[in-house]
Write a structure and sequence with these properties.
Layout: H1 22-53, H2 55-65, H3 68-95, H4 102-126
Helix pairs in contact: 1-2, 1-3, 3-4
Length: 127
Amino acid sequence: MADVNRGNRPLSPHLSIYRPQLTSITSILTRITGNALIVSALMIVWWFLAAATGEEYFAFANGFVTSWFGDLVLGLSVWGLWYHTLAGIRHLIWDNAMGLEIEAATKLGWACVIGSVVLTVLTIAIV
């Protein structure tokens, strides 16, 4: 027989008691940075194609890429590249059945976040 109270049941896990964990946030962030890197790579390819097309079109594309918005996109791309790389290394560690305990997974998550920020600052300072 059909459950007549189906609409009255709480969601599982209920949104008012669920607290996102670091591992779930870093997993979502890995997917976001991967897709964002595709967008920034397309912007760089557009810049190269504009350079091959002609001087006037390159001036337009170069103006966009070197604007404050282009600098922001490229700066965030450096962070996204480092974060995505460190998260990939973390997944390689997990693929070898190491670091799967909650404490170790949390430490690896913080290592990805903090390490990506430090490596981004170093990269921007060097370049």
